[in-house]
Structures are given as structure tokens and as C-alpha cells.
Design brief:
- The chain is α/β, with parallel strands linked by helices.
- The protein contains six helices and seven strands; from the N terminus they run βαβββαββαβααα.
- β3 and β4 form a beta hairpin.
Amino acid sequence: MSEIYLIVGLGNPGKQYENTRHNVGWRVLDRLAAKHGITFGKTEHKALTGSGTILGKKVLLAKPLTYMNLSGDAVQPLAHFYKIPSTQLLVIADDLDLPLGTLRIRKMGSSGGQNGLKHILQRMGNQVINRVRFGIGRPPGKMHAADYVLAPFKGDDDILAAEVADRAVLAVEAWLTDGVDIAMNRYNGTGEPKPKKEKPTEPAPETPPTT
């Protein structure tokens, strides 16, 4: 089994897509890389990659350059080349069905309609793949979903998206150090992460009264 953990942020290459809703996976990956001094300096297997160490774990960060719908064409060859099992793969992607401000971490399941994740599951031949779903909400009114996901965050939404990206970084770190179940318990939902559970302290024995 490989010692490397593969962390993939989904998005589209190109300046015009940088701050769009569809590129929140890249946004989280950029913040994670900056926090831990990792640079994206290599292109391999149709992905821009950066390697390093996060909290004692060897990691390979990857941004597929295939455009969203063909993300599996980068992820599957990377996982195969580095002999990374699906349990050591994490995919960060946008989710239309979750409100902005919400994270949902899962260790298996369907794509939920996210085309990049769908293609990865198809190419990997396995649904037991960890993922961080970054809620972006549904398009307003009659706006088409394709136009909505390719539009940039603005105003308060942009501020909230930045806050959620920082929380997603913490969730990825928790996945690396504590495992997916603890990451799910601590970061699923909205708002501040749930604190680590501590064992209840035993009450001090009563001292018998002196006579």
C-alpha cells in the first residue's frame, strides 16, 4: 500500500474560471497548499500537481486539467501510477444540492449529479471514495444550472465561500490525521467545527463528615 494520500480538487483550468462556483475544489486546494508550503510545479497524467507533507502525512495534491466532466481521466491514472488505494483518495467538489455555507464529507456513495465526481467513480470502478462536498446552493429563479456553476461568487457569497474554504481545509487535515469518520462528525454541516469529544470526568468521592 502506498504511503501517499491523493487529494484532488475539482475545477476547470483557465483564468476565467478561477473564482467560479464550479472551481471551489481548486480554491480549497490552493488554500491547503499555501498553508503547508506546497507548490503546484508539475504536470502529470493530465493534472497540475504538488507534493509535500501535511501533518506528518505524505500527500499529492492534484488539479485535473481535463475540464470538469472528464476529471477521471486525470485521477485514475494518478492513483494507478502512485499505487494509491481509494481509501487514501479524497475528492473536493461543488454541490448544487447543498446550501452555500454547508460542507458534507462522505466516504462512499453516488456522485449526486456532480459530473466530475461521476466520471471519477466510473474510471475508478469504485464508489468507496472519500469526498468533501462544498455546498454552492441552487441557481436563483429560472437561471440554468450550467450558467450558475460557471458564474463567480460575489459580495457576501464570496465572503462566505472563503470562510467555508478555510473550514474545508480543516476538514481535509482531520481526514488525514484522524480518519473520515471523525472528519464527518466534526465538520459536516454549517458553522464552527464540532469540538473533539472528551471523556466525562468522574465526580470526586465524597469525604465522610468528621465527628
